[in-house]
Amino acid sequence: MGVFPENFLWGGALAANQVEGAYNVDGKGLSVQDVLPNGGLGAWTESPTPDNLKLDGIDFYHRYKEDIALMAEMGFKVFRTSISWSRIFPNGDEETPNEAGLQFYDDLFDELHKYGIEPLVTLSHYETPLYLARQYHGWINRDMIGLFEKYARTVFERYKHKVRYWLTFNEVNSVLELPFTSGGIDIPKEQLTKQDLYQAIHHELVASSLVTKLAHEINPDFKVGCMVLAMPAYPMTSDPKDVLAAHQFENLNYLFSDIHVRGEYPKYANRFFKEHGIEIQFEEGDAELLKNYPVDFLSFSYYMSITEAFDKSKYASGRGNILGGLSNPFLEASDWGWQIDPIGLRLVLNRYYDRYQIPLFIVENGLGAKDELVVGADGTMTVLDDYRIDYMHKHLAQVKEAILDGVEIMGYTSWGCIDCVSMSTAEMSKRYGLIYVNRHDDGSGDLERYRKKSFFWYRDVIASNGENL
């Protein structure tokens, strides 16, 4: 008997907005991603610009059969992707859906099932229809709940026999840092109050519970999860003030999973809200929805840990870490400054499971790096990405340890299993894939696909169910 469960879901993950391209094909409307030429961390523009690589992505829209065949060659059991809301409802508030968009995902899911690959589908992966951002100001507006319910109902009914695993919102806690990208909120961040942000979050949380309820009504076999950005926090020193600073940072993240899983706002939120002038406006039925329709499992992305201190001015900033924090002197960093911490993944898994005792799913983990395409020993083009193999090996070794610790883990999907346009910076040069795509930051390249060294390593890991790490 190996350590990994026999039914462990090995696979990879992508997002529609980073790979599909075809941004104006077959009736698709614009999403917030189409006006972010410099990535989710940058400013938005009034309309799509030619230098936005996401407009064409890696042409997954037309090449998905080729790409899924490569995933099947690696032995994928599951493939996480997202549905682009604006392919189904181009503006987000139409009366009837776009049939061409629905048919695309029918064809995509059929292709996955041809190879025995389970789809894991995110309903909203940083892809709010642009019209809803401009006309409704995104999730600040409570009307978004009903619009999201209609969209969810449409795809649940359409794919009720093709998709079993669903996620509601991708990295829902990221709206605090990326309100436009994550929440479709088109009000400049500096003008947003904490009241605005947490009220928008409340609307998303209610919507998540509402569509979880809906999913189980449409197909009781559906499994619905939440998805959060996991980032364990360490104190810079053993000074109790630093320990408290790390604890308070983690609570800001736990708030989202606490509500999704436990069905109510945690007590520690009361003081935070009071001290920051936040009064969450509950409508009739909100509390009951949150309480009665928690998620079936908790999924998360994991790329880095964070370090906190009571007096941050004493220490170097963790420049690359998405949610800020301080530089941890014990950790190395990627080319983009993200600090690499495999043991942090074991900590996250244990902390979540100790807190909730529900199944966990690692749906994003991977290394963004500058890859070089070379001629391999057999004469084919490849990437000798031993650094990526080392990264994945060390993280999966900690997943193995967490399973031995007693943590129930459903699966692992490597982020960006095929090279895609970076969410944060809109670069192609920040490559995560096990498959190289010949496209570059200037838009050049013929989009040909090449197997990296990590492709074959991961294939062997999956074939051995994690025993050959």
Automatic annotation (TrEMBL):
Q: Name one GO cellular component term.
A: cytosol
One Pfam match: Glyco_hydro_1
- Keyword Cell cycle set for record: no
- What are the TM regions of this chain, as residue ranges? none
Is-annotated flag, keyword Hydrolase? yes
What the entry lists under InterPro entries is as follows: GH, GH_1_N_CS, Glyco_hydro_1, Glyco_hydro_1_AS
GO BP terms in the entry = carbohydrate catabolic process
**Active site location:** 364
Give the UniProt keywords, A-Z: Glycosidase, Hydrolase
Protein family per UniProt: Belongs to the glycosyl hydrolase 1 family.
Matching entries from PANTHER family are given as: 6-PHOSPHO-BETA-GLUCOSIDASE ASCB-RELATED, GLYCOSYL HYDROLASE
Q: Write the protein's name.
A: Family 1 glycosylhydrolase
Whose protein is this, by species? Streptococcus zhangguiae
Taxonomy-wise, where does this protein's organism fall, top ranks first? Bacteria, Bacillati, Bacillota, Bacilli, Lactobacillales
